[in-house]
Amino acid sequence: MKKLTIPILLIIATALIALSISAAKINAVKVGSKINVTVNGKYFTSYIFSDDEKYPFFYPVNGPISGASVTSMRNGVYPHHSSLFFGCDRVNGGNYWQEGLERGRIISVNAEILKEEGDTVVISDECIWSRPGALSPIKDSRKIVITSPSETVIQIDVEITMEMLTDVHILRTNHSLFSARIAADLSVKYGGTMINAEGARSEKETFGKNSSWIDFYGQRGEVIEGLAIMQHPSNPWYPSPWFTRDYGFISPTPMYWPENGKETFLEKGVELLLRYRVLVHAGNHIEAKIAESFEQYSNEK
After folding, report:
1. Domains of the chain by start residue, with CATH
2. Which of 30, 105, 132, 298 has the fewest CB atoms found within 10 Å of its own CB?
3. Rounded CA gap, 108 and 286, in Å?
4. Residue 77: its pLDDT value, please?
5. Residue 183: pLDDT above 90?
6. Could you check whether the bond before residue 239 is cis, i.e. omega within 30 degrees of 0?
7. How far apart are CA 172 and CA 257, in angstroms?
8. How many CB atoms neighbour CB 248 within 10 A?
9. What b-and-e string marks burial along 142-171, b requiring 16 or more CB atoms within 10 Å of the CB?
């Protein structure tokens, strides 16, 4: 038995070294009103929660190979599209989506890093939905976990618990909840691909369709990169229908298709837990194993 001790220890040591080499090192640093995240020393994203902004959001969201953002930040036609974000319009008369801070804001009050380095980083935040002269309708708490399952995939898990501080009426709106504005060079308009879990493609086939996920990707020089959003099966309204645009916008948007056709009503005290997974990836949806990743995600409690 003694003769086996050294070889076994060598095997274990070799395995541990290989594991440490393969595991991505992720770091998060809070700098002013941003939390900056790097993956293996390369800048990946910032969670931005400035007092000058409408709501907290992620920007850039850099591709794992190119280092260029797969999302875009505002443009002349849609200046309210802030990369990867969460908001809602027509909430008790307020607008927590489009420009104009006086119309309503989602204010970060406690953004912090719970785990700052390792194979994951964890960020938390608490937000108040506020509008001058009106009662705050909602507060939310957020947990964000960033990992990198492989060299070609970076994963952002977002959990948002919304608590209704008063009775909340959300009139039918195409501006609601978790959304991504995709970089123009990846959009369908410029030759990119939008595809959902059922294989439907482009705005024409995906708009208003219920699906567990949508992936958006395109060619960048020698590489393909993109971003997928997944809805967890435990979400209310799952699977929500999607609001999609070929110019580069995807959002599971239940408030545009309310059951009564007019509004979504949520009583004071109601809490909603919304979970989303974002995969920032190289390759197309097959190479990035989007369907397999969703299968794994759907089994997570």
Report:
1. 2-298 (2.70.98)
2. 132
3. 37
4. 67
5. yes
6. yes
7. 7
8. 28
9. bebbbbbeeebbbbbbbebebebeeebebe
